[in-house]
Amino acid sequence: METLYQESPYSASQDLKVTLQDSILVFRSQETDKKSIFLSNVDQPFNFNIETVHFFNPKMDFPPQVVVNRLKIVLEKVLVTYDFLAGRLKLNSQSGRLEIDCNAAGAVFVVASSEFALDEIGDLDYPNPAFRQLIIQSLENLGPNDQPLSIFQVTSFKCGGFAISISTNHVLFDGMSFKIFLQNLASLAFDDKPLAIVPFKDRCLIASRSPPHVAFTHPELYKLELPIDGVYSCPPLFESTQEDLDFKIFRLSSNDISYLKNKANANGTRPSTRITGFNVVTAHVWRCKPLSRDVEKNKERVSTLLYTVNIRSRLKPPLPLSYCGNAVISAYASAKCGELEEKPFFELVDMVSEGAARLTDEYVRSFIDWHEIYKGFVNGEFLISSWWILGFAKVEYPWDKPRYSCPLVQPKKDIILFLPNIDGVNNDGVNILVALPAKEMEKFQFVFHKFMERSP
Question: Which sequence ranges form a coiled-coil region, renumbered to this chain (predicted)?
């Protein structure tokens, strides 16, 4: 069996010896209309920052200082189309909703350097918590209501390689729309290229209906009492725990994934079941996570798995593929812990596939309308967030494609990440990031390997 796991050799205290050299506000290169941008009910709960880092090998024609100069100019250009990146969040006092004030207050651009070479900071495809030193978190000289929605930082390494780190408030983009933003940023970085894809920015396409109509029970959601100001805070599922967590990567190769697909096929799934790499890996992880706890005492406990699904093609009419904003919602699958241990694998794959198939146009509209009436957040035991096939590392810049692109993470017990591997030749495996208390991690590791064992 090719399945491997790797314990974290890193800690958040690892010093990458980063020195900040400059920090400025960047403004659009030409005037745009000042306006407020509507945020849909899919956007509203995502009021927290998402950070990514994109590592680049040295390239003779593009030393870090040349990249810094080029990127600053490119940001000034891209802020004309993506004017909301230079705006600020505000609460509309009449509607009680968050919206983006496109006030041209500026995006942040930071230049920094590290005393290390790129090859000295560890495996790039292992989400080292210390990589968060490659992006500043906020600007102390700006007030709490004037914090930027986007921060860009270029950190040079002594080998001539560099990292471009980007922090954006999640209300701005989902994974697909952020990938399109990267493609546009990269295209404008060439001297003679226009935008690669014109983003579609009207978020009213997924506004709630009037009057709202909730046609389903939505067990994947729960109502939460909002504070007096009406602003969503970080949902509990995304909050950091005070527990000490082990932090490991479980690596599945393309052969491992093929084995899981064959295992699902061998027992005859329903004709409607989609036996994809994502579905089989998700089913395998779903079985292992609840079983990492004491199942003998909890056989009747229901485990609800959540996983995000792109809804662009599921609506009628479909959203434009270039829709700019959040167009993902949580699908769910539920089963008792005892059933997860005993059911044949193909039945788990069936349930995962069925959870995504449930997201029809009417279900999605009902989901959006539920948020209009009740407000609230997703409700489940844990969430799988997949960065596996987003393809950030396939974006072509003048200074080449990234050596690796990944989120800057703070491991959380109830969120499991699917990340791409770094193998540029056979980039079809997956790295599964899991963070659990030590005893649960020991059991998770045992069952993860147990259910991957091949028959003799």
Answer: none
Instruction: Give the single-character DSSP code of 404.
Output: E
Looking up tokens 């030409």 gives 30
H helices then E strands: how many in the chain? 8, 18
End-to-end CA distance of the chain: 11
Shared domain check, 277 and 191 = no
Q: β-strands 150-156, 98-102: how paired?
A: unpaired
Q: What share of the chain is helix, strand, coil (3-state, %, to 5)?
A: 30, 25, 45
> 199, 229, 245: which is the final residue of a domain?
199
Q: Which residues, 6+ apart, have CB-to-CB distance to 184 below 8 Å?
A: 78, 81, 82, 195, 196, 197, 199
Q: For residue 49, what are its two tokens?
A: 């920052």
The answer to whether residues 161 and 53 touch, using CB atoms and an 8 Å cutoff, is no
> Confidence band (pLDDT; 50, 70, 90) for 9?
low
8 Å CB contact between 94 and 38: no
**Amino acid letter for position 19:** T
Query: In total, how many domains does the chain have?
Result: 2
DSSP 414: T
* Same domain membership, residue 258 and residue 189: no
* Average confidence (pLDDT) over 397-421: 92
Q: For the chain, how many residues are written?
A: 456
Amino acid identity of residue 212, one-letter, is: P
Q: H or E stretch including 333?
A: strand 328-336
Question: Would you state the pLDDT for residue 126?
Answer: 84
* Active-site residue flag, 213: no
User: Does the pLDDT value for residue 209 go beyond 50?
Assistant: yes
- Whether 294 is covered by a domain: the verdict is yes
- Looking at the predicted structure, is the pLDDT value of residue 447 above 60? yes
Q: Are residues 323 and 423 in the same domain?
A: yes
**Does 170 qualify as catalytic in the annotation?**
yes
In the numeric block, the tokens 């904003």 are attached to 325
Active-site residue, selected from the candidate residues 170, 341, 354, 449: 170
**Residue bearing tokens 């491991």:** 411
Residue 366 lies in a domain: yes
On whether the CB atoms of residues 308 and 330 are closer than 8 A, the answer is yes
Q: Which of 213, 341, 354, 396 is catalytic?
A: 396
Please name which of 337, 304, 328 lies closest in space to residue 220, comparing C-alpha atoms: 304
**Cα separation, 199 vs 85, whole angstroms:** 13
CB-neighbour burial class of residue 444 (10 A; exposed 0-12, middle 13-18, buried 19+) = buried
The boundaries of the domain holding residue 9 are: 4-199
CA dihedral 425, 427, 429, 434 (to 10 degrees): 130
User: Considering only 163-172, 290-299, 432-441, which range has the smallest mean pLDDT?
Assistant: 290-299
Looking at the structure, tell me whether residues 58 and 126 fall in a common domain.
Answer: yes
